[in-house]
Amino acid sequence: MDAGVWVGAIFGLGGTALGGGLSIWSSISAQRHQARAARELVVSQRMDAAADSAIQMFFQIKQHVRGRPTESEAEGHQRIDLWEKSLQNQVSKLEPILLRIRDAEFRLRLTQIAEFLAWSDVTEPQLGGSINILSSLCDHALDCLGALVRDEPLPAEGGGLVWARRVEHAYGEAMEGTYEA
Predict the structure, then answer these.
(1) Looking at residue 75, what is its pLDDT?
(2) What is the dihedral of CA 76, 80, 82, 88, to 10 degrees?
(3) What angle (nearest 5°) sits at the alpha carbon of residue 16, between those of residues 25 and 34?
(4) 116: closest CA among 83, 91, 143, 93?
């Protein structure tokens, strides 16, 4: 055989090996891309499920807030204490759900709202609080969750959250006054 045949055979084998190597590399790359896309889909589905669960929980809490017994009813204080314990129980079920929300700003805002919902002094009239704060906090949480689900930016702090922060500040000042006395 002459040299031309050998050169042709070597280039043929080299081209086949190069083509096979590129084919293997592209299939591995495609599999990695598909695996990454599948992981992102699972994470997205989990976050959507967490947002849906949180929306349902905030709606339940809002309904619970609307059913608050009045102090004028017989055994009013005992019923209010039971109502507050039930509210705190619902909020404690909500907190692990909020941990699954991946966006840090939304998670922080919703966690703050949940903490105010569980804090019984937020409704204290002597501190500037009211039972209406709880409903307003739920509305703001639902606004935030709606924005999260729609991929919109975090809404500005709602009136209920601002109001709750004022009550928290008044509580801090009252505690400092008590400590100094």
Answers:
(1) 65
(2) 180
(3) 20
(4) 91
| CA separation for the pair 64, 90 (Å, rounded) | 9
Distant-in-sequence, close-in-space partners of 53: CB < 8 Å, separation ≥ 6: 97
| Section 59-73 average pLDDT | 82
Question: Does the predicted model carry a pTM greater than 0.85?
Answer: no
Q: In whole angstroms, what is the distance from residue 60 CA to residue 58 CA? A: 5
Closest by CA position to 144, among listed 122, 114, 120: 114
- Is residue 152 left, alpha or beta, with left meaning phi > 0 and alpha meaning psi from -120 to 50? beta
Residue 148: closest CA among 111, 177, 107: 107
Using DSSP's 3-state secondary structure scheme, residue 48 falls into: helix
How deeply is 120 buried, as exposed, middle or buried, from its count of CB atoms within 10 A (0-12, 13-18, 19+)?
middle
Mean of all residue pLDDT scores within the chain: 86
Q: Would you give the DSSP letter of residue 64?
A: H
Retrieve residue 5's tokens.
Answer: 């045949």
The Cα 23–Cα 56 span in angstroms is 49
For every residue of 130-150, DSSP letters joined together read: -THHHHHHHHHHHHHHHHHHT
